[in-house]
Amino acid sequence: MKPTLIAILVALIGLGACDPGENEPEPEKGKAALLVKAIFEDGTPAQGAQVDLYKSAVDFQGLTNSTTTIEADNLGEALFNDLDLQQYWFRVELEEYSNATSTNSTGRALVKDETLEKITQLRR
Fold it and tell me: For an engineered disulfide with 54, which of 43, 89, 107, 115 has Cβ 3.0 to 4.6 Å away?
Protein backbone atom coordinates (compact mmCIF):
# COMPACT_ATOMS: atom_id res chain seq x y z
CA MET A 1 0.00 0.00 0.00
CA LYS A 2 1.06 3.51 -0.52
CA PRO A 3 2.19 5.45 2.59
CA THR A 4 -0.59 8.05 2.11
CA LEU A 5 -3.27 5.38 2.04
CA ILE A 6 -1.83 3.73 5.15
CA ALA A 7 -1.85 7.08 6.98
CA ILE A 8 -5.50 7.67 6.05
CA LEU A 9 -6.50 4.19 7.24
CA VAL A 10 -4.68 4.65 10.56
CA ALA A 11 -6.41 8.03 11.04
CA LEU A 12 -9.85 6.56 10.30
CA ILE A 13 -9.29 3.65 12.69
CA GLY A 14 -8.22 6.13 15.37
CA LEU A 15 -11.38 8.19 14.86
CA GLY A 16 -13.55 5.11 15.16
CA ALA A 17 -11.97 4.24 18.49
CA CYS A 18 -12.97 7.60 20.02
CA ASP A 19 -16.16 7.81 22.05
CA PRO A 20 -18.31 10.47 20.32
CA GLY A 21 -19.42 11.84 23.68
CA GLU A 22 -16.03 11.77 25.34
CA ASN A 23 -15.41 15.51 24.84
CA GLU A 24 -18.88 16.56 25.98
CA PRO A 25 -19.14 18.00 29.47
CA GLU A 26 -20.84 15.92 32.14
CA PRO A 27 -24.33 17.17 32.99
CA GLU A 28 -24.21 19.20 36.17
CA LYS A 29 -25.42 17.28 39.18
CA GLY A 30 -27.11 18.70 42.23
CA LYS A 31 -30.40 20.22 43.19
CA ALA A 32 -32.07 23.62 43.00
CA ALA A 33 -35.32 25.34 43.97
CA LEU A 34 -38.01 27.29 42.13
CA LEU A 35 -40.12 30.03 43.73
CA VAL A 36 -43.25 30.87 41.74
CA LYS A 37 -44.89 34.16 42.75
CA ALA A 38 -48.49 34.35 41.54
CA ILE A 39 -50.19 37.74 41.42
CA PHE A 40 -53.39 39.15 39.96
CA GLU A 41 -53.41 41.97 37.38
CA ASP A 42 -53.74 44.55 40.17
CA GLY A 43 -50.62 43.17 41.88
CA THR A 44 -52.33 41.45 44.81
CA PRO A 45 -51.03 37.97 45.70
CA ALA A 46 -52.98 34.97 44.45
CA GLN A 47 -53.29 33.37 47.87
CA GLY A 48 -54.42 29.74 47.67
CA ALA A 49 -53.70 29.37 43.94
CA GLN A 50 -52.82 25.84 42.79
CA VAL A 51 -49.36 25.68 41.19
CA ASP A 52 -48.64 22.55 39.11
CA LEU A 53 -45.05 21.84 38.05
CA TYR A 54 -44.15 20.02 34.81
CA LYS A 55 -40.84 18.58 33.54
CA SER A 56 -41.64 18.94 29.83
CA ALA A 57 -43.38 21.37 27.51
CA VAL A 58 -45.46 18.49 26.12
CA ASP A 59 -46.80 17.61 29.57
CA PHE A 60 -47.43 21.29 30.33
CA GLN A 61 -49.31 21.85 27.07
CA GLY A 62 -51.44 18.76 27.68
CA LEU A 63 -51.77 19.54 31.41
CA THR A 64 -50.75 15.95 32.15
CA ASN A 65 -48.14 14.30 34.35
CA SER A 66 -47.48 17.20 36.70
CA THR A 67 -44.56 16.30 38.95
CA THR A 68 -45.96 18.05 42.00
CA THR A 69 -48.60 20.56 43.07
CA ILE A 70 -48.29 23.23 45.75
CA GLU A 71 -50.84 25.69 47.08
CA ALA A 72 -49.60 29.28 47.07
CA ASP A 73 -49.22 30.85 50.52
CA ASN A 74 -50.67 34.20 51.66
CA LEU A 75 -48.02 36.01 49.58
CA GLY A 76 -49.00 34.06 46.46
CA GLU A 77 -45.73 32.11 46.63
CA ALA A 78 -45.13 28.41 45.97
CA LEU A 79 -41.66 27.05 46.69
CA PHE A 80 -40.53 23.86 44.96
CA ASN A 81 -37.40 22.41 46.58
CA ASP A 82 -34.99 19.61 45.68
CA LEU A 83 -35.50 19.94 41.91
CA ASP A 84 -33.32 18.40 39.23
CA LEU A 85 -31.21 20.78 37.15
CA GLN A 86 -33.44 21.19 34.11
CA GLN A 87 -36.06 23.53 32.67
CA TYR A 88 -39.56 23.45 34.20
CA TRP A 89 -43.03 24.68 33.23
CA PHE A 90 -45.78 25.68 35.66
CA ARG A 91 -49.54 26.22 35.53
CA VAL A 92 -51.18 28.42 38.15
CA GLU A 93 -54.95 28.44 38.68
CA LEU A 94 -57.36 29.97 41.15
CA GLU A 95 -61.08 29.78 40.41
CA GLU A 96 -61.54 31.24 36.89
CA TYR A 97 -58.05 32.79 36.82
CA SER A 98 -54.87 31.27 35.36
CA ASN A 99 -51.43 32.20 34.09
CA ALA A 100 -52.21 30.85 30.61
CA THR A 101 -51.14 34.16 29.01
CA SER A 102 -48.26 34.98 31.36
CA THR A 103 -44.90 33.54 32.41
CA ASN A 104 -45.17 29.75 32.58
CA SER A 105 -41.59 28.47 32.38
CA THR A 106 -38.22 28.83 34.03
CA GLY A 107 -36.91 29.68 30.55
CA ARG A 108 -33.71 27.72 31.19
CA ALA A 109 -32.35 24.85 33.23
CA LEU A 110 -32.05 25.47 36.95
CA VAL A 111 -28.54 25.94 38.32
CA LYS A 112 -27.08 23.99 41.24
CA ASP A 113 -27.89 25.46 44.67
CA GLU A 114 -29.93 28.36 43.26
CA THR A 115 -33.48 29.42 44.04
CA LEU A 116 -34.88 30.83 40.81
CA GLU A 117 -37.78 33.26 41.29
CA LYS A 118 -40.46 33.62 38.62
CA ILE A 119 -43.41 36.03 38.80
CA THR A 120 -46.55 35.08 36.90
CA GLN A 121 -49.79 37.00 36.49
CA LEU A 122 -53.24 35.45 36.74
CA ARG A 123 -55.97 36.65 34.38
CA ARG A 124 -59.46 35.56 33.43
Answer: 89
Helix (H) or strand (E) holding 39: strand 32-40
Cα 111 to the center of its chain, rounded Å: 10
Tens digit of each residue's pLDDT (9 = 90 or more) over 35-55: 999 999 999 999 999 999 999
Q: How far apart are CA 64 and CA 62, in angstroms?
A: 5
- The stretch 69-78 carries a mean pLDDT of 98
Fold of the CATH domain 32-122: Immunoglobulin-like (2.60.40)
Question: Pseudo-torsion of CA 54, 107, 79, 115, nearest 10°?
Answer: 140
Residue 48 CB partners (closer than 8 Å, separation 6+): 71, 72, 94
| Cβ neighbourhood burial of 72 (10 Å; 0-12, 13-18, 19+) | buried
